[in-house]
């Protein structure tokens, strides 16, 4: 199962680091344990460089996290992504979600 580390920084940034395997076998438990209770401060930074494996269920969890930031009108940025996520993102044309970018204003 994937691990999740959440750091609430003094500058009002919620930094979320996700590592390991995020797939259908752990997606629901991961969502319930880490994503659902998450409180985003003024902005969100995602660090995804240590994701070793991901499938459609894992990608859905990440997109739900991004949408949660947008719903809270919090800008977000993808700090880094793993090669597994980059490959999945390219294959299914999801670069708009997972391209490492500067803070994106919620729309």
TrEMBL record:
InterPro entries: MlaB_ABC_Transporter, STAS_dom, STAS_dom_sf. Coiled coil: none annotated. It holds the Pfam family STAS. Residues 3-107 form the STAS domain. This is STAS domain-containing protein.
């Amino acid at each position: 199962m994937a691990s999740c580390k959440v750091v609430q920084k003094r500058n009002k940034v919620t930094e979320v680091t996700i590592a390991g395997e995020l797939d259908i076998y752990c997606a629901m438990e991961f969502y319930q344990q880490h994503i659902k209770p998450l409180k985003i401060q003024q902005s969100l930074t995602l660090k995804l460089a240590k994701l070793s494996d991901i499938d459609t269920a894992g990608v859905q969890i990440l997109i739900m996290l991004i949408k949660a930031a947008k719903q809270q009108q919090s800008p977000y940025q993808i700090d880094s992504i793993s090669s597994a996520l980059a490959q999945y993102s390219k294959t299914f044309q999801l670069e708009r979600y997972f391209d490492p970018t500067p803070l994106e204003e919620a729309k």
